[in-house]
């Protein structure tokens, strides 16, 4: 059945309905009054009502549309876009879903200029995203670590298949039809780690008619994108295909490296992605089949997730001997300290010992660059749907296999100093004539593979009672090795000093090292999750509906972590040991693994650890095993009132759950307490979705969260003065707030989009030590004992700005230059936010704002489109996450006496920044 607008569409005098089987039969015309009489009530057949409200003409049902949108063209500036979403596992009009949902269709994204998930945060209340670490937070509920055993708090679903990352939600509109951001716990239908919400990515599907399109984009920093797609029927009846691909390249980074010959950093990328799809109908249309396969590769410089993970630290080079309390490697800036006694060190930066990043994130002096690689990325998804009488059975399966690699400088090697002379660097190595190189690199990898299966039975009958029941299974295996190396320093390979002290657990013999690795961590693990769930919706009357849902989830995680730690060249390695360490032979390399790791007796193992620490004399690795399970019963209960076709008022309770986990990998070192319990949220929410005539649509929500057991990694000092990171649970927190999403058409051709969120997310009960202020003496500290432990109550939850809003105004000029021209301007403002649990000035990223603009011209036949765009037009510094404070404390050595002096350079902040000003042009052409 085809639906067409009548000529007098602005008044909606009539609707042409072409329901004929023959092209010779004229369409049937009905009046608006007849339409309202037939379709306006809520008691019509479910499928018919859904089709009418989502595909026919939303203006007649919801009073929100009064202009035609050309097929394939941009969203008209005189149209409030009507959306069909699958937030509750069935197709529904967005305004009829009793869930706070922000939906981004391809039209809306192109109209506003939403090109990444970071852009989506601007127009999604309560949502934040850190591009460097790929971490998502919703309403203050988020992930505070990239350890793979510590799960995300916002579930990501790519065509119904669970993913462990969010970056793919920002893919091009050539690939994605829409993205749905479900705010609040989705503890029934999206149970796996959806304690904060869920992100649904829905791909564009194959077409029954032939379609082909190419796109090209060029912007400053030599950034260019080529994309193409083709779709249509196959030689098999009722089967269609789709092929799409893109190549993206940026050669100039946002941050210029002042060192001659060194690469710039910031979005330096070289990526390609290919995707193929097949879909078909079989057995008289009773069986729907759809399958997708994708393959991508990254050969990036400092671009993509992880490329900016070092952040921006606007501070002088730290000039102490080691990086932080418990540090074990020389800092490159140490030679900038006149008291160090270091001579004949070449400073390869033309600025000498001045850090160019002190004044701007767009200038750096770094010898070792960040490099991001994704040599393997495969993704698959399959949907099978059987249409039975009164219900559908849908099976969804798929998964991802990828290998990710990130290399870069360690935190102690961020400066621009390089020892190229034969003169020793450190004062206490003069007698031996040894050379110490301050530059060190890390190598971090993820080998991750996961696959899921889900079965849903969804009612389709014409009944007041509708239901969804299902079962889910997920299995993940991964390795997450990380190590640091300095190939110019052969001492890392031994021989080792005092083996009886440091290698006593291996019989007094230290295993050789052959790869110049000072730190070596090799965790590998498996996670298995399964769940059963069900939800019923009962329409009590035409105006009232009740919802009840339950889910049982079970998670198990087990694996092994193996580590090794060496030390050489700094006095902290040998604290408390004989002075002959610094004798005529110079400092000796020490294997301090056995001395530094947590090694409790078998009868006193920490929770979740199932084996004592064991030492391998052949490799020098210390290993232990972990194994634990978590489970929870979650669900939802809600009541919905729809007094008319323009109003939806709902109240709901939801319980959310996130599996517990372990803090292993990523510079951890067999932490004394690596286990964390599950998180739970009890959410209470009320909402209003309301259309006021044909020109104003408002979606409002207010919520209160009782948040238990927030998982937080906390750094502490462990054996040998080393820094270890424990996993802790913060017992009780609260998140409460208000959100508004408004679409307004004040005059013809002008559309205004506005959203605002207020989020008060803070700790109610808990305690921890602030590694940036271990003595609890900084302003705002609330010590509760002599060990530096602080009361956390009242501290804000990380990455939860209290206020943020965005507004977009777009205007359409009709029949201009042979098509339609849409001008679009956006303004976003975000409040200050904190990157750690301690609400202190050094963890605070300030508030910021940004202006974007674009012009979109679309030809009358919708085959050609030209877009001129600019982002961050005034080139302001923005922050996509809170700051992290670090104490710059270390030692310097008196060259004459070898006496050590503690130097405190204060606490400095590291920020994660948004991109600078970018601008360019995009051209799109559809062949057919």
TrEMBL record:
GO annotation (BP), single: iron ion transport
Keyword Iron tagged: yes
SUPFAM superfamilies membership: Porins (SSF56935)
InterPro entries: Beta-barrel_TonB, Beta-barrel_TonB_sf, Plug_dom, TonB-dep_rcpt-like
Membrane topology, from the record: Multi-pass membrane protein
GO CC term, one of those recorded: cell outer membrane
Localization (cell): Cell outer membrane
Pfam families: Plug (PF07715), TonB_dep_Rec_b-barrel (PF00593)
Domain TonB-dependent receptor plug positions: 94-198
Keyword line: Cell outer membrane, Ion transport, Iron, Iron transport, Membrane, TonB box, Transmembrane, Transmembrane beta strand, Transport
Chief location of this protein within or outside the cell: membrane
TonB-dependent receptor-like beta-barrel domain: residues covered: 385-864
Family, as annotated: Belongs to the TonB-dependent receptor family.
Name recorded for this polypeptide: TonB-dependent receptor
The organism of origin for this protein: Phenylobacterium soli
